[in-house]
Structure formats: structure tokens, C-alpha cells
Amino acid sequence: MRQFQTSTLEQRHVFDADFETHPLEVAWASEAIFFVDAEQLEGVGSLLLKVQISVDGVNWLDEGTAFDPISGTTRAFRRVSHFGGWLRLQGIFAGAACAYKLTIHLVIKE
Amino acid sequence: MDYRLDKFQPLKRILCFDDFDNGLCGWTNLMPNYTLDNFGVRDSIVEKTQWGPIMLSSATFRFPGTHGSMDGIYSLKLATRPVANPYQGPPAPGSISHAIKRMTMHRKPSRIQFEMWYAYTTEQDRSGLSENDIRAFGVSFDMQDAKARNFVGVRYVNSVNGELKKEWQVMQANDVSDKDWAYDTDGDWCKRGVDPMWYGRRHPDGRADGYQFVPDSRQELCYNESDDKINWLYLRLTYDLAERRYVELQSRDRVFDLSQFQPTDVPPYARIEGLLNPVIWIENDSDRRVFLFVDSVVISAD
Predict the structure, then answer these.
(1) What is the homologous superfamily of the domain A4-109 according to CATH?
(2) Residue B116 neighbours by CB distance under 10 Å
(3) Does the distance separating the beta carbons of B74 and A3 come in below 8 Å?
(4) What is the per-residue DSSP string for B263-288?
(5) Closest by alpha carbon to B224, among B118, B134, B131, B92?
(6) Is the pLDDT of residue B184 over 90?
(7) Which residue from A5, A11, A26 is facing B49, i.e. has the nearest CB?
(8) Fewest Cβ atoms nearer than 10 Å: which of B18, B43, B111, B180?
(9) A96 pLDDT higher than 90
(10) ipTM reported for the complex, 2 dp
């Protein structure tokens, strides 16, 4: 049987400034999907989300995968693979001040 | 030869032998009950939706690379978020990481035992040595029979507001009100004796209303000399379900007699008769991530 884990990295958490998700160790897996459930609570600015990888869970680099800019209320996902030992998302607020309530799942499989 | 069980001292019947090289083995994140409108949860002074998610870890660090586990590569890792309140306040949302496995009792009341090999450290995100940033970690059973719900467990109080304590405590509630238990909150859902991992007022000297100090229990646990070095440690907690009394705690090579202690009876909750949930948790003492790595767990009974 294949190994599998769905982890709720962020749960209905309100963000209004740049952030990074809870770092998750994924060395045992070869494929992953980030699921994002976003609800814009206030403001008109958009949210940029990009995938990051790390050698040690402390120092992070962009992996190259990014979500389309998020605005309003939306659900989206991005697939990643060949990521080494760690995964997280970095969130960057672009444009006008705004706030989002986010639930972010990381679904990993070997 | 399979030596993996030789490092444990199980009672006659093994319920679980969870080696996390084989996956999560049924251990999951603890969450509250999502039973209100829009999957809401009941208000409480302790926010329980934000605890740090658990994961399977290779115990990899900046310079040494991969530590691995005691028998292979993977351990169960509990990881807090980088937030903390002072010791005497309610734990900050995310300042604890908590793993739980959900079972039910299938035998007549007898002795039951929790064993694990584990290690702990802080995230090495800054220079120096950070042992003081780990507040406490522990194991317990959340269990219920027809008579009562009981939390049976121990924790190692490592640091209180940055001051090292390094003493063991056992779950046994002081004679306080439900309001006291919820940090002086009226109408909180929680009852005295339930969830002492985060409820029960704490005092700046390390005392807590959910726990009693184990006498003469100050103990060094081999934190090691650097945050990126971990050493696997043995823990065993034995409890007598028939007598409703603690038996003993073994930590490394020391055995502590717990027979003077008794868990706190809470009137049974609906729909959880027969509950037998082993749990593990770690709490930070400052605004940084702390980690508890669990190589393997054995739950056994007579």
C-alpha cells in the first residue's frame, strides 16, 4: 500500500500580513498537492502564494511553483514533486491592505 | 532477529507496537469538536484548532544532515508553532503540538502501560543553545469507563519562563472549581480534570492545578550540547485500571513510584464509554518551534 498523509497546515486562520505556512517534513513522499481555501474578509488587494523548499526546515528557497494571484473567495491547488525534505507556502500581500481567512492543506503521497 | 521490541518492557498483551518507519500508525492531530453551525467549535479560553501539525520526520538539521530515527529514518514529530504565552497563562494558540491515537478498551480492567523512545530539541533557527525554550512534554491516556472519565499521564516540566526545572509531574487535579480549571473563565465547556495538557491554572514556580510533582524527580535527560544533536530516550508509564491508581514511571534508568497518586474522576461524557486514547504532546516556553521526535511506541496491558 502507498503511504499517505493529509495535513492541515493552516486552519481558518486570518492573515493580513506576509506569512509562511507551518513547515512540513515530506522526505518520505514523492508527490504533494497544496489545497488552498481562501475567503477575502476585507480590502481589495490580492494574495500571492508560492511554494518553497528547504534543506533543513530553517533556510528556504522558492521552488518555482506559484498560485495565480488570489482575490475574493476561491479554492485552488498546485501540484509539486521532487521537493527533498520540506515544503511550505510563502504568502505575500500585493497592492492594497486586505485580510484573508485561509485553510491550507498539504496532501502528500508515496 | 527482530530486536526492535527488546528495548521495551511490554505487559503480557501488546495492543500497539508503532514504529514510525512504517507510517503514522493511526496517530493524528488533536482537534476540537466541529459540531456548531458552519463547522464551528465551542468557545474556550484555550484555542485548540491551531496546535502545530504532526508529521513524519527524518530529523534533519542544518550542518549534521539527517539524524534519522533509532531503527531507521522516520520518527513521528510533534512541532509547535513559534508562539508562546508566559507559563501562568493559557497556552497560546499553536504553542503546543499534540498527537493522539483513538482506541477503545477490549479487556477487563487490568494494568495498562505506555512506552516510547523519544528525543526532543528546538528548531535551530538561531545561534546558541536553546534547551530553556522547551517548557514541557508528556504522555497520557484519555480513558473512560461506566464510572468516570480519567486523564492518566505524566509530563516533564523542563523550563518555566526560561528557568530550567527538569522535574516530573503526574496528572492529578487540585480541588479547584471548573471556573478555576479554565483560567478563571465562566461557562467554559471544560470540566475540572479534563485536558490537563492545557487546562488547569499554572503557577510561576512550576506547580499546576492539573498536576502534582513527583517527589525527588529532578532528572537530566541528555538534551545534548547542541540543538542539532538528539539522543533517544526511554519512557514508561504504568497504570492500574482495576485499582484506579498509578503504578510507576520509568524515565531512562530511573523508576519513580507513583502509587500515592490517583487520577481525577470526571463524570462520564456521552458517547465515549470505553475510550482509550494514548496521547503525546510538547509545549514551548518561548516564541519558537520546539520538536518532540518519537521513534516508536508500545501500548500494552495485562
Answers:
(1) icosahedral virus (2.60.120.660)
(2) 23
(3) no
(4) PPPBPPPTT-TTEEEEEEEEEESSSS
(5) B131
(6) yes
(7) A11
(8) B43
(9) no
(10) 0.97
Of A12, A13, A25, the CB nearest to B77: A25
State the CB neighbour count (10 A cutoff) for residue A70. 20
Work out whether the CA dihedral B157, B160, B165, B171 comes out positive or negative. negative
B158 backbone φψ class: left, alpha, beta (φ>0; ψ -120 to 50): alpha
In tens, the pLDDT along B31-68 reads: 999 999 999 999 899 999 999 999 999 999 999 999 99
Closest CA relative to residue B144, chosen from B238, B242, B265, B38 = B265
CB B59 within 8 A of CB B71: no
What are the pLDDT digits (tens) for A30-76? 999 999 999 999 888 899 999 999 999 999 999 999 999 999 999 99
Q: Are B187 and B180 in contact (CB under 8 A)?
A: no
Report the alpha-carbon distance of residue B176 to residue B196 in Å, rounded: 13
The Cβ of residue A81 has, within 10 Å, a number of other Cβ atoms equal to 10
| CB atoms B49 and A56 under 8 Å | no
Q: Is the dihedral of CA B119, B282, B28, B277 positive or negative?
A: positive
Distance CA B19, CA B205 (A): 37
The dihedrals phi and psi of B284, each to the nearest 5 degrees, come to -90, 160
Tell me how far apart the alpha carbons of residues B263 and B267 are, in angstroms, rounded to a whole number.
13
Instruction: Give the pLDDT of residue B299.
Output: 98
- pLDDT confidence of A18, banded at 50, 70, 90? very high
On whether the CB atoms of residues B205 and B107 are closer than 8 A, the answer is no
Answer for the pair B30, B48: CB distance below 8 angstroms, yes or no: yes
Which cell numbers hold the place of B31? 482537534
* Domain boundaries, given as residue ranges, for chain A: 4-109
**CATH code for the domain defined by B13-301:** 2.60.120.260
Contacts of A28 in chain B (CB under 8 A): 56, 58, 73-74
Tally the residues of chain B.
302
Of A9, A28, A85, the CB nearest to B53: A9
